[in-house]
Amino acid sequence: MKPHDGTGDLPDPPLRRVVSKNNADGKSVVAMDATASNHKWSGRGMVATLIWSTDECPADVWTDEDYGARALGTQPPRNGSRFTINDYPAGMPGRMHRTDTVDIIVVMDGEIDMELDDGAETHLNKGDIMIQQGTNHAWWNRSNKTCRLAIILIDAKEGGLAITA
Predict the structure, then answer these.
(1) Most C-beta atoms within 10 A of its C-beta, which of 1, 110, 128, 163?
(2) What DSSP designation does 67 have?
(3) To 5 degrees, how large is the angle CA 104–CA 108–CA 109?
């Protein structure tokens, strides 16, 4: 995906990101409460908004770093994770890709088709949940409405297969 060049649409509705942490006194506080603004656009119109990431497991939760402000590719950091909200516009064609990750996908709104590299397709609707384990796949939005997916990628052991993402 490419950085915003002024031609892509922003997520609609906007995504509110609330992050809590412990302050210097050990009390729980809301550290951030704002519209998520770390967006990347694909050449096909899809916008991915990074919500949070980690770069190790167990994760470091005792830092002031905004892990949602990082510049990441599709693959999360080694031993880490990447959480995005992806908006796929109506009529968006798919692109076959894979990562060495366990992917947890929740359809938040709309509907979408997931195609595997053998051509098999699975139709997903609002509320459906999918787990992918390092598989080649493409997302096709053949509907007339934007589809919003919540996607968590967790780094996995390399499978020795060619990665196309």
Answers:
(1) 110
(2) T
(3) 140
Of 107, 116, 122, nearest in space to 138 by CA: 116
Determine contact, residues 150/106, Cβ cutoff 8 Å. Answer: yes
Amino acid, res. 65: E
CA distance 143 to 157: 35
Query: Model pTM greater than 0.85?
Result: yes
The three state secondary structure string of 89-117 is: CCCCCCCCECCCEEEEEEEEECEEEEEEC
> What is the per-residue pLDDT across 121-148, written as a single tens digit (0 to 9) for each?
999 999 999 999 999 999 999 999 999 9
Q: What angle do CA 17, 147, 100 make, to 5 degrees?
A: 75
pLDDT > 70: what percent of the chain? 92
Measured distance CA(111)–CA(107) in Å, rounded: 7
Q: Token match 């919540």: residue?
A: 150
Comparing C-alpha atoms, which of 64, 67, 87, 62 is closest to residue 77? 67
CATH 2.60.120.10 assigned to domain 38-155? The reply is: yes
**Going by C-beta distance under 8 Å and a sequence separation of 6 or more, which residues neighbour residue 58?**
none
| 44 touches 90 (CB < 8 A) | no
Count the Cβ atoms, other than its own, within 10 Å of residue 40: 20
The domains of the chain are located at 38-155
